[in-house]
Amino acid sequence: MIHIENLSKSFVLHNQGGAVIPVMAGAHLTVAAGECVGLVGRSGAGKSTLMRMIHGNYLAASGSIRVAGVELAGAAPREILALRRATLGHVSQFLRVVPRVPTLEVVAEPLLRLGVPTDRARDRAAALLARLNVPRRLWTLSPTTFSGGEQQRVNIARGFVHDYPVMLLDEPTASLDAANREVVLALIGEAKARGAAILGIFHDEAARARVCDRLVDAAAFVPEQAA
Amino acid sequence: MQAAEMDICAKMKAEVPLLSASGVTRRYGARIGCADVGFDLWPGEVLGIVGESGSGKSTLLSCLAGQQRPDAGRILYDGADVLAMPEAARRRLARSDWAYVHQNPRDGLRMGISAGGNVGERLMGVGARRYGTIRDSAIDWLGRVEIAAERIDDRPSGFSGGMQQRLQIARNLVTGPRLVFMDEPTGGLDVSVQARLLDLLRGLVRDLGLSAVIVTHDLAVVRLLADRLMVMKSGRVVETGLTDQVLDDPQHAYTQLLVSSVLQV
């Protein structure tokens, strides 16, 4: 479901003398349906950069990124938007939401955008929030004031509310207690079982061992001149 | 590929842009307002136009909305050439299919008539005549923009800035437009009011399937509202792309400067 071939990336800093910073070269990666691949490598190896390129936040300098058959390098914004809406889910480490919007709405929103009726979207959002032990009294409040762990669980609920065929998970268990970590690992297991292709960054080695079928070291993609 | 995905692909292929601009240029004497601007806006999409004061973004918006005539270029709305239309046809579009939300609600409202009158007037402009129907629609729309029904007979001059802005949105959307132009819709409002307005706008865009062109200098606003971004400098488009891509991985020197100049909170 994810096919990456010969992918490279560099940043050009126009306001700092036009400095060119190569961060990735010759990256290859595939993730099949029903498989969870863990992206490993030291800090700065480019794990997050690769995830952002697959999500379409970062432009590729050269090479190919195909997600569910759609070529992302050179894709029109609306193709990427359509892919993100229905196919490509993303759990990032940061929660970016309109302030004031209640948690339940934040979690239900991806379903509403897909045209799922409001009642059904809210029911599904509520079920996930309950499963992730987000107290019911918080559901009507905006998550912007929540603790880090609560925000992360809201992010996870939002990322799992629709059965995306492809999922990117950036540190989904990072600031969670043992019980909630178990819930997240179970959610990942269920997503794999229904055939989702998952690429994740897990610093938590035990979690990685539990859900990942394979590991890929991003350090192999660091260009020589930057290594 | 799953059936749902094939469905989406087929739908995307069948669609045509709702608004399609090419080569739009407007000069003020020797000075350039905007030059050679082109883009396609698809149904349900929100396009953000950012740039500093004087970058030509407001000039472009008023050209697109038919408020001033560009010196060159072509603007197609739903396949029809807007600039070649008779004036009456263009006015009809502006009254029914299009909406224009001004930065200052005083420019988009009639301050001397009631809130309900402001909403009803636009409905009457497209032929509504029955008082009861008009009043019911007005109450419905005041509710949607979170203005209490008992304020329906009050004049907007007594409203707060945020309420005036919400009333302007109700007045604009009551005719069920497909395309909304917004010029700094959250400018001049307190941040708490801004958030409320952003929430409202996002919900309306999603639920009504509106397309929108939003001009703003506030990158946080476009991050939350716009699907796509167009960055303007000195009247020209210097960069376009998916909103988070332009903000997270800006390619042009000016966009990099703009993004790196935002104060972190």
UniProtKB/TrEMBL annotation, chain A:
* SMART domains with a match to the protein in the record: AAA
**Sorted alphabetically, which keywords does the UniProt record give?**
ATP-binding, Lyase, Nucleotide-binding
The record's section on InterPro entries has: AAA+_ATPase (IPR003593), ABC_transporter-like_ATP-bd (IPR003439), ABC_transporter-like_CS (IPR017871), CP_lyase_PhnL (IPR012701), P-loop_NTPase (IPR027417)
Please give the superkingdom of this protein's source.
Answer: Bacteria
Q: Does the keyword Hydrolase apply?
A: no
Q: Which residues form the ABC transporter domain?
A: 2-226
Task: Select a single GO molecular function from the record's annotations and give it.
Answer: ATP binding
Q: Which protein family is named in the record?
A: Belongs to the ABC transporter superfamily.
| Protein's UniProt name | Phosphonate C-P lyase system protein PhnL
Native source species: Paracoccus siganidrum
State the organism's lineage.
Bacteria, Pseudomonadati, Pseudomonadota, Alphaproteobacteria, Rhodobacterales
